[in-house]
């Protein structure tokens, strides 16, 4: 191939284990957007059992009684074995799609079974929607901060991710309005707004009902699709959250749901509920990508929903995560009063803000040395923001481990602060709450 | 959005059920390449039980004893429940990757467990590799005819699919050489050669050992990756096929394997074995797309491989498909001597060539009316070729249904031929065997 810039060295010179990539010139342009997280290697270390991990988003699947899964399996293999083992429809098993309608009805959504597309986790729905809509350079509006692996997908299709600030009530409508106007003036092509409006990942905040209506109106007026990602909505603590954005707007919202948090992620089953025309393209994209989602996983879940007390099981999960959130809030108040943090009414995460001069990514190796891990705030921004933020997950460790993890974290943070006060006589330490985002664009803390 | 050509009509005017797509202007350019197969609607009709379907590629999973699956499940849920229900590694479960090495060793492949990436069926490996390598307009070389849903993937990333002719010994090296030279002269950017060298889908032919070496050499000399897709290699009938192309070339081949044909497609578990540098990017792409492949499916398969006589089970499948191939060959000889066809030594498919003036796509509705279905040859070409070809699958129906299906097909074909001889006095009927492809480019039969 004379068109490649650099000739490939003779094959055979490059055994596995070298860092040279003889195929470097052959990759697509989009592949440059696929890079390993800077903290990935560290997380491998952080998975050692002696480390309290407040970093991951793993649900506490041990709270799921094995006999419920075993019961579902027995019925699947007895009654529907050949179907479970076979290829299926690219849209998903019809009975499961009917059951998904019942689940979404709990959040106010009325829809047709024809418009549900089962996917390999809602992550794959994110990938498929992005593949359908994003040309290189197209804008995706995303909350600041946003779910990290959604941004990995957007980057992998060369999207221009533009953050819109949020506060403790979620995305700020006025900031959204101004941001859209600015991008339109620049001639940018905005395709969709990506939002986790309920118990957001990572901020833990929930978009109010009034703001949901206002944001839907803004997007409608500007021909911008809303991609509503709702993995945590049923996992509320004190009172149910506002109904889904999809409950008031059918044509302008692609809604994503999943069984990963209310049942188990190991099955890799989620779904998209999409406007009619988009749904047809989603099915085609799903078939191209995987032929059909796993029949076995789908029938397992369908039988589980048929016969187990799945709402009771969600209540169990709610109680567990509620207790863990409370443990984390109490530990933060006791050990880290110099931080500010969000108080989530559901979901998995607390978003904490450290004094302004601390750098959560630089601090992470020291934290792991103290046997505690978290996710640095910069992971949740495409623009370098979040330097003094950390995401703390309360979903997986027990309350006593959470308490111990926060205690260890306080050792690290207090050590950092001691260093700063010893060696710096300049600016006083300030806390920077999430609400700073009201002043858009968000300040760049460098 | 002022940048969209057509303003979106007011939301609310478009309930589900209309054909209008208010989001038409928002799709990515690549989405134009995602179109429903022309015969898709017909196949929905063809799935009625009274139709003998020789169209699909569904393995005969009923030959898999349910107790083998149940045994695997019991061990998974007893010993590894929380792992099976949880997120896993983006590369796949290590034990399963070790077992995949044993399977690939049966076809002569020696590899490191580090270079295996588990995917959601090998279909998803095709999608991920294409995402990593294809810019719009890049050339994918593909056998003519080629696996239809591979071409759907290539099209969905805007590849330029260029067919290279094959004969009963597989892809023709000299044609490949000439085609590459011609494309290079045109300044085209060739990224990879896609091939199913063993018991190809749809042609049913197998690339000889000598040609494997020659094609690897041609691709090496031209910096073209080989994407070796091998779902059927272990399902041989009379004698083992030549070893995999990957067995002789490590650096220039991405090898794809799957459990869909040797175990069951309902788990959606396949894999890619990739050169070291590419493997790292594949894992990142896999994580972006699905976070991790299903832990539950992977552990089920791993336990099955651990404890069941999986080689014996493959022998069982071999015997079943062998008998069905023989039934189809006998029926073809008896009922359709005016056709030519390939004689596969394994896999699922026979590729038949009808007299020159017949059009397999136009004929399909009449076939379905006669209660038999097949896949028209044009589905397997990106360039309109294959008009008088049909793919006949012998994997799913029993021998007596295969015989009856071919008998019904002969009624349809003989009816067509009667019409032709009655109404046409012009050119005599000729058969056009697969070997016509030796004259490249393949003739366009319009």
Structure write-up:
The structure is a homodimer of 446-residue chains. By secondary structure, chain A is of the alpha/beta class. Chain A is 39% helix and 13% strand. In chain A, the strands form three sheets. In chain A, strands 2-9-8-7-6-3-4-5 form an eight-stranded mixed sheet, with helices on both faces. In chain A, strand 4 and strand 5 form a beta hairpin. In chain A, helix 2 crosses helix 10, helix 5 (121-133) crosses helix 9 (276-290) and helix 11 (310-335) packs parallel to helix 13 (399-423). The longest helix of chain A has 26 residues, at 310-335. Chains A and B meet through helix 2, helix 3, helix 5, helix 6 and strand 6 of A and helix 2, helix 3, helix 5, helix 6 and strand 6 of B.
Write the SSE topology.
2 copies of one chain form a homodimer.
Chain A: H1 40-46, E1 52-53, H2 66-79, H3 81-85, H4 94-105, E2 116-119, H5 121-133, E3 139-144, H6 148-156, E4 160-167, E5 170-171, H7 173-185, E6 190-195, H8 209-221, E7 225-229, E8 253-258, E9 270-273, H9 276-290, H10 295-307, H11 310-335, E10 340-341, E11 349-353, H12 360-369, E12 372-373, E13 375-376, E14 389-393, H13 399-423
Parallel strand pairs in A: 1-12, 3-4, 3-6, 6-7, 7-8
Antiparallel strand pairs in A: 2-9, 4-5, 8-9, 10-11, 11-14, 13-14
Descriptive key words:
four-stranded antiparallel β-sheet, globular, 446 residues, eight-stranded mixed β-sheet, homodimer, alpha/beta, 14 strands, disordered N terminus, disordered C terminus
């Amino acid at each position: 191939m004379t068109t490649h810039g650099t000739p490939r060295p003779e094959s055979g010179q490059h055994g596995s284990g070298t860092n040279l990539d003889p195929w470097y010139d052959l990759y697509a342009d989009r592949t440059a957007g696929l890079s390993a997280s800077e903290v990935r290697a560290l997380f491998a270390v952080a998975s050692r059992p002696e480390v309290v991990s407040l970093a991951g988003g793993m649900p506490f699947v041990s709270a799921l009684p094995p006999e419920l899964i075993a019961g579902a399996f027995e019925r699947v293999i007895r009654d529907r074995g050949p179907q479970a083992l076979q290829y299926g429809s690219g849209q998903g098993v019809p009975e499961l799609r009917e059951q998904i309608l019942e689940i979404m009805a709990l959040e106010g959504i009325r829809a047709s079974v024809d418009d549900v597309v089962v996917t390999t986790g809602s992550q794959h729905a994110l990938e498929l929607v992005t593949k359908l809509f994003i040309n290189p350079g197209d804008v995706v509006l995303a909350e600041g901060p946003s779910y990290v692996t959604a941004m990995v997908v957007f980057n992998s299709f060369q999207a221009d991710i533009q953050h819109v600030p949020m506060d403790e009530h979620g995305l700020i409508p006025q900031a959204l309005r101004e941001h859209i106007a600015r991008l339109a003036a620049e001639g940018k092509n905005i395709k969709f707004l990506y939002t986790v409006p309920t118990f957001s990942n990572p901020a833990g905040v929930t978009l109010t009902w009034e703001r949901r209506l206002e944001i839907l109106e803004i997007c409608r007026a500007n021909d911008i699709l809303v991609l509503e990602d709702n993995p945590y909505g049923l996992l509320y603590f004190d009172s149910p959250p506002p109904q889904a954005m999809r409950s008031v707007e059918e044509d302008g919202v692609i809604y994503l749901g999943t069984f990963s948090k209310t049942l188990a992620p190991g099955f890799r089953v989620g779904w998209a509920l999409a406007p009619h025309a988009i749904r047809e393209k989603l099915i085609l994209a799903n078939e191209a990508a995987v032929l059909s989602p796993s029949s076995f996983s789908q029938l397992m879940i369908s039988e589980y929903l048929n016969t187990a007390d799945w709402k009771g099981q969600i209540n169990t999960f709610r109680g567990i995560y509620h207790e863990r959130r409370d443990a984390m809030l109490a530990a933060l108040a006791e050990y880290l009063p110099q931080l500010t943090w969000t108080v989530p009414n559901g979901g998995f995460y607390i978003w904490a803000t450290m004094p302004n001069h601390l750098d959560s990514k630089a601090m992470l190796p020291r934290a792991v040395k103290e046997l505690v891990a978290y996710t640095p705030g910069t992971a949740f921004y495409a623009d370098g923001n979040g330097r003094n933020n950390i995401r703390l997950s309360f979903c997986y460790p027990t309350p006593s481990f959470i308490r111990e993890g926060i205690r260890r974290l306080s050792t690290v943070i207090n050590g950092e602060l001691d260093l700063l006060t010893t060696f710096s006589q300049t600016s006083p330490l300030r806390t920077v709450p999430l609400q700073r985002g009201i002043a858009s664009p968000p300040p760049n803390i460098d």
